[in-house]
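Q: Given only this backbone (184 positions), what sequence would you predict?
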């Protein structure tokens, strides 16, 4: 008999519901990275070096998101530019990396557009959850929601990191701009 091919691996994000009624124009503007949950070994080893990170969101062509991330690397302010491309499902995006087949699936899991946003990122079989706030601090209720989302995808408090609430970069000079992919 013929051997059957195994089914393609299911995306971990297929089970994640995107925010209903997501309004891209309302996502525009400045956000602060408040927390991230990830099994990334680099993050675990360097969590004591986390730098305050700010993000500016712009909507392109009514459906793509241009993301500019401002953060310090070795004491210098850098801007990392990315483009989240829409996929069929609302609230789902694709971030293409450099190189063949490198991609990150992104889902806007929950947001009220005005104070917080919880996003999921999947690269291969690795998943992470990020909490963004319109200010560098969010309410305990929002933190609790974030931690519920984290547990829902099998991550835990021991791989959840919170970012500093001070020392943000507002800009980067032209020598410190990267057009690139996201490390999750």
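A: Predicted residues:
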């Amino acid at each position: 008999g013929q051997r059957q091919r195994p089914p393609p691996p299911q995306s971990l994000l297929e089970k994640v519901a995107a925010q209903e009624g997501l309004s891209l124009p309302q996502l525009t503007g400045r956000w602060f990275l408040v927390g991230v949950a990830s099994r990334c070994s680099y993050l675990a080893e360097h969590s004591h070096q986390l730098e305050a990170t700010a993000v500016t969101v712009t909507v392109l062509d009514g459906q793509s998101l241009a993301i500019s991330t401002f953060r310090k690397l070795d004491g210098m302010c850098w801007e990392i530019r990315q483009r989240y491309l829409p996929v069929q499902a609302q609230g789902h995006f694709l971030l293409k990396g450099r190189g063949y087949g490198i991609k990150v699936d992104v889902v806007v899991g929950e947001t009220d557009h005005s104070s917080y946003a919880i996003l999921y990122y999947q690269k291969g079989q690795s998943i992470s959850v990020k909490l963004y706030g319109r200010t560098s601090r969010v309410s305990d209720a929002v933190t609790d929601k974030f931690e519920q989302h984290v547990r829902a995808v099998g991550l835990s408090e021991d791989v959840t990191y919170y970012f500093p609430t001070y020392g943000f970069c507002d800009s980067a000079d032209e020598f410190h701009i990267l057009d690139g992919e996201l490390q999750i």
